[in-house]
């Protein structure tokens, strides 16, 4: 099957747009390759003292590291035992070290990165550190790998900002082969739909706190990733379609023999694809323009998290690739929606995986010409082999073809009979700026609205109005001052149950914000990531209560229906809440807020250029 013309056209324009930045990136990676790893006899860049420090505590791996002839893997881990998704990673380093020794190499934990949970910080002050934790993780990854002792890296992380941060950091070491090693989802507990129903009843005062806590505890009940299709599980999908996992790794449950076998296989493969062997596969050449296009198509086809409208831009930028929301919109409009996973349906990722999962979906998208199959996947083949399904033949890990047809069409479908002819994401543009909207969970009848604005400067102010009974009639709920430069762009997911209650009462409503919503955004139309943000004089700062606002997700437009002369004459409202600049560590992140790019630039604080006159410019 030839490539779909839109995929071909978008890929070509990304390549052309990125020609200079991508060329510069690849040149830098080639230079790094010529100088690394510094411990090998061919380089001897590390002094004897440097090298002795590097293997002093390595025990039985010391001879291999001292000789410098065998491959050495750097492990970067997001392990902590508070978060269910990362708790299983505790024992991975021991397993990886043993597997590396058996394969004739070695492995060392190069460093750890923080892993915060948006589920714990949702609606709290700590959520204002969430987005910038991605940048912190990227920095920590770079620090871990900067010892220059490694021939390859295994990156261990799963959730929200962790995987994008690990990847952004590792791309500065793109001369190294890199394999992602996840932990997998927890087993299914209380259904996500039943959990959401209790949340909504609680928002209305019809369920007690104890009932709510019981529902949440039965849903989030053990080790592994949350089972809804939020940012964490969207991360795992992206790693598959970009070829950064061993095939079929994403949704295998933790604590199983198959999961351990996949971790061993990732270790063995990392050693095979170093520059010491004959199948060198550096990260810089795995994450290319085609892999980034695959990521955007996979996101659209599965109804993935809106957070990746930000993260993918930042990841691409770290690889010297320039993408924007027009690219995402164009691809989404030609990509069929193949999955119904909560919040876009009632099933969870375990159900999706059992129905045929990513292997089936990847095969269908390749067959339709919507994915680039010819990317340099870390497993040694191309994307066609990425679709293979892992299984254990006694104790031997093997791969087989995924199901030829979906095993549950209520959860997963092929391109011939999709849930929707178009994917889950849209770009909006108009006199309010540019924004992103996720439509995969929004009924067609709710995808457009014209209604008066109700303007708030925090999500707590919205909830206060709801409790006071003043959110009546149809309206567009505007929550401004929530962008990356204002307060770190927190998710506003705390509003989801409340807005759902209002919509269920028959009111026509929508959310409009320069903040984020989350991977769990659902049935209420939400125009998010509005740029320019209000603090930078964006149009949301000009909106007033009662202004008529039109949002049309299908047409890709959003506008304030205000007389043009009046609109131009309005002074932007002051939207800075200085109380959000301190407390819960927020005072330490002022540098990141000040240097953050726009949401469409990835809301990233890392890409700055220091000119000769010492002026710092966001790239």
UniProtKB/TrEMBL annotation:
Residues 72-385 form the Dihydroxy-acid/6-phosphogluconate dehydratase N-terminal domain. Keywords: 4Fe-4S, Carbohydrate metabolism, Gluconate utilization, Iron, Iron-sulfur, Lyase, Metal-binding. Residues 411-603 form the Dihydroxy-acid/6-phosphogluconate dehydratase C-terminal domain. Binds 1 [4Fe-4S] cluster. Its cofactor is [4Fe-4S] cluster. GO terms for molecular function: phosphogluconate dehydratase activity. It catalyses: 6-phospho-D-gluconate = 2-dehydro-3-deoxy-6-phospho-D-gluconate + H2O. The keyword rRNA processing does not apply. Its EC number is 4.2.1.12. This is Phosphogluconate dehydratase. It comes from Lysobacter zhanggongensis.
């Amino acid at each position: 099957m030839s490539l779909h013309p839109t995929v071909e056209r978008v890929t070509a324009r990304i390549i052309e747009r990125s020609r200079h930045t991508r060329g510069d990136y690849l040149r830098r990676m080639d230079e790094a390759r010529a100088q690394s790893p510094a411990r090998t006899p061919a380089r001897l860049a590390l002094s004897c003292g440097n090298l002795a420090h590097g293997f002093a505590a390595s025990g039985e791996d010391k001879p291999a590291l001292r000789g410098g002839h065998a491959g050495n893997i750097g492990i970067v881990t997001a392990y902590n035992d508070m978060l269910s998704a990362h708790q299983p990673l505790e024992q991975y380093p021991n397993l990886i070290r043993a597997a590396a020794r058996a394969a004739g190499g070695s492995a060392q934990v190069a460093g750890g990165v923080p892993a915060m949970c948006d589920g714990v910080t949702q609606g709290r002050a700590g959520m204002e550190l969430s987005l910038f934790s991605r940048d912190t993780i990227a920095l920590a990854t770079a620090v871990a790998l900067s010892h220059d002792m490694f021939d390859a890296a295994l990156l261990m992380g799963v959730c929200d900002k962790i995987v994008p941060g690990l990847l952004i950091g590792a791309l500065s070491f793109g001369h190294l082969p890199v394999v992602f090693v996840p932990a997998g989802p927890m087993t299914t507990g209380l259904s996500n739909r039943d959990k959401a129903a209790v949340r909504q009843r609680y928002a209305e005062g019809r369920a007690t706190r104890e009932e709510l806590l019981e529902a949440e505890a039965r849903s989030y009940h053990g080790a592994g990733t949350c089972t809804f299709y939020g940012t964490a599980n969207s991360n795992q999908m992206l790693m598959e379609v970009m070829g950064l996992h061993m095939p079929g790794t994403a949704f295998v449950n933790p604590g199983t023999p198959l999961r351990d076998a996949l971790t061993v296989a990732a270790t063995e493969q990392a050693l095979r694809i170093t520059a010491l062997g004959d199948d060198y596969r550096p990260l810089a050449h795995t994450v290319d323009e085609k892999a980034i296009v695959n990521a955007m198509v996979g996101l659209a086809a599965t109804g993935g998290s809106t957070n990746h409208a930000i993260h993918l831009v930042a990841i691409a930028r770290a690889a010297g690739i320039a993408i924007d929301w027009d690219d995402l919109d164009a691809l989404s409009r030609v990509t069929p929606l193949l999955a119904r996973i909560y919040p876009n349906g009632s099933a969870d990722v375990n159900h999706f995986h059992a129905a045929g999962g990513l292997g089936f979906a990847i095969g269908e998208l390749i067959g339709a010409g919507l994915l680039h199959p010819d990317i340099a996947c870390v497993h040694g083949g191309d994307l066609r082999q990425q679709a293979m399904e892992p299984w254990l033949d006694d104790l031997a890990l093997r791969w087989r073809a995924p199901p030829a047809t979906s095993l549950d069409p209520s959860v997963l479908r092929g391109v011939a009979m999709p849930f929707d002819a178009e994917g889950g994401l849209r770009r909006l543009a108009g006199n309010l700026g540019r924004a992103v909207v996720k439509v995969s969970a929004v009924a067609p009848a709710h995808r457009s609205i014209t209604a008066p604005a109700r303007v708030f400067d925090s999500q707590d102010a919205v909830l206060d109005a709801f409790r006071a009974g003043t959110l009546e009639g149809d309206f567009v709920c505007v929550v401004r001052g929530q962008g990356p430069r204002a307060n770190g762009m927190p998710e506003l997911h705390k509003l989801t149950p409340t807005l759902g209650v209002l919509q269920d009462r028959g009111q026509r409503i929508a959310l409009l914000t320069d903040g984020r919503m989350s991977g769990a955004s659902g049935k209420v139309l939400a125009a998010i990531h509005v740029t320019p943000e209000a603090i930078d004089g964006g149009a949301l700062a000009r909106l007033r209560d009662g202004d008529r606002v039109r949002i049309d997700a299908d047409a890709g437009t959003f506008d304030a229906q205000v007389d043009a002369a009046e609109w131009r004459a309005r002074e932007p409202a002051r939207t800075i809440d200085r109380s959000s600049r301190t407390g819960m560590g927020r005072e330490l992140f002022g540098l990141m807020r000040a240097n953050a790019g726009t949401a469409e630039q990835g809301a990233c604080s890392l890409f700055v250029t220091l000119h000769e006159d010492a002026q710092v410019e966001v790239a």
